[in-house]
Specification:
Blueprint (H helix, E strand, L loop, with lengths): L3 H8 L3 H16 L5 E2 L11 H13 L2 H4 L9 H15 L8 E4 L1 H13 L5 E6 L4 H7 L4 E6 L9 H7 L4 E7 L11 H18 L4 E5 L22 E6 L12 E4 L7 H14 L7 H9 L7 H17 L3 E3 L6 E5 L5 H10 L2 E2 L1 E2 L8 E5 L4 H6 L1 H11 L3
Parallel strand pairs: 1-11, 3-4, 3-5, 5-6, 6-7
Antiparallel strand pairs: 2-8, 7-8, 9-10, 10-13, 12-13
This protein binds pyridoxal-5'-phosphate.
Length: 396
């Protein structure tokens, strides 16, 4: 018998993964080039060459016992210092290594922080549509995830609705910007209003409400979109960052948390989070990868590649008559489905070998997510299939 909690998790197992498996099944029947798999947010741009160079350099020149050994649970001091300095240069902050904890990607950073902050019954607010793993991360610590829907067609958070959702039990609000699944970048004006609501509510309720900025897509922005750095707008902000998408290293599991000294109960939270890394069983972030990211901290992925995909796909789909949210960040396109039941639409798309993720997987029906982190050729080749799907589903 498995635990009661795991029964729930198993039942809600990710539909994204299920679609990915379906894509693989279709590819084995029809050939990879005849299946247009837009299901998974797995970067298709290779990691910058500097990553492999850094690995070779570290293995050749650094002390192997040190490179592969245990270190402080929060990560190597020099690595944290390098990252803090890079953030300070970019955002005008004044972090030191004492504000950083190296993590096993964004997923572990979020788990560490929820483990650190949540008592059973505490509430965490997320703006839907949202990355649905948040549910598992919050219920893992017996917290309750409360959903505040973003309004279509802009899909930006509504500060008034946030205000109405906050209670004495609200311990944290999570913001994912640029957003998975919508590709929307929440602008400064909205962040300022959210900060105002949170400040006022903290005062009114006499509680601390932490804003958790989940930002694995921070570097993936297009045209002139700007992603606000949340600690500058709200004092009680904790940032979760990942190199999974920014350097195309999702399998290497490397990221970090920034816990600014200004937050309430900083010392207690930082040291508890450091212990949470051990309790969660990962102890410290992968040591070689810590050393690598410090060496390549100024490197960038090929955003232009995703941008070309974004433009081609958006123009193709809107040209066919589909109603799409124009993506400004991440590598997802959010499309309204012609019929209300988006799962039915996904099933029809499968008939043309197009694999999509239904919006209900992100708590928002009537939409689908199209991950365009695929080869440009895949997008071009998929045009005929999209055309047929449009003919079948769009009303003339
Ligand atoms: N948060 C969001 C919004 C994501 O989309 C993802 C991964 O797709 C994660 C967190 C987890 O990222 P990581 O691979 O760094 O754990």
């Amino acid at each position: 018998m498995i635990s009661n909690k795991m029964v729930g998790f198993v039942q809600n197992n990710s539909a994204i993964r299920a679609m990915f498996e379906e894509g693989k099944r279709l590819a084995s029947i029809y050939g990879k080039e005849n299946v247009y798999d837009f299901s998974l947010g797995n970067p298709n741009v290779p990691a910058p060459d500097a990553v492999a160079d850094a690995i070779r350099d570290i293995l050749a020149n650094e002390d192997s016992l040190m490179v592969h050994g245990y270190m402080s649970n929060v990560g190597y001091e020099d690595v944290r210092t390098t990252i803090a300095e890079s953030l300070n240069k970019r955002f005008g902050t004044s972090f030191t290594m004492k504000n950083l904890i190296m993590t096993v990607g964004a997923a572990s950073g979020l788990n560490v922080i929820f483990k650190t902050l949540l008592n059973p019954g505490d509430e965490v607010i997320a703006f839907s549509p949202y990355f649905v793993e948040y549910n598992a991360y919050v219920t893992n610590y017996d917290g309750i995830l409360k959903e505040v829907p973003c309004k279509a067609p802009e899909f930006v958070p509504d500060p008034k609705q946030l205000e109405a959702a906050i209670t004495k039990k609200t311990r944290a609000v999570i913001i994912n910007n640029p957003n998975n699944p919508t590709g929307v970048v929440y602008p400064v004006s909205v962040i300022e209003e959210i900060a105002k609501v949170l400040e006022a509510k903290q005062k009114e309720l006499g509680t601390d409400i932490y804003l958790i900025s989940d930002e694995p897509y921070r570097e993936l922005v297009y045209a002139d979109a700007v992603v606000p750095y949340l600690p500058k707008y709200y004092r009680n902000t904790i940032v979760g960052y990942s190199f999974s998408k920014s350097l195309s290293l999702p399998g290497e599991r490397i990221g970090y948390l920034v816990i600014p000294s200004e937050i309430s109960d900083f010392e207690q939270i930082y040291s508890a989070a450091a212990i949470a890394t051990r309790i969660l069983g990962y102890v410290n972030a992968p040591s070689l990868m810590q050393r690598v990211v410090a060496k390549v901290i100024e490197e960038k992925t090929d955003v232009a590649y995703y941008d070309r995909n974004r433009k081609t796909l958006y123009e193709m789909l809107t040209g066919l008559g589909f109603d799409c949210v124009k993506p400004e960040g991440a590598f997802y396109l959010w499309m309204k489905t012609p019929m209300e039941d988006e799962k039915e639409f996904c099933d029809m798309a499968k008939e043309y070998h197009i694999i999509l993720v239904p919006g209900s997987s992100f708590k928002c029906s009537g939409y689908v997510r199209i991950a365009y982190c695929v080869s440009h050729e895949t997008i071009l080749r998929s045009e005929e299939a999209w055309k047929q799907l449009a003919e079948k589903t769009l009303k003339k």
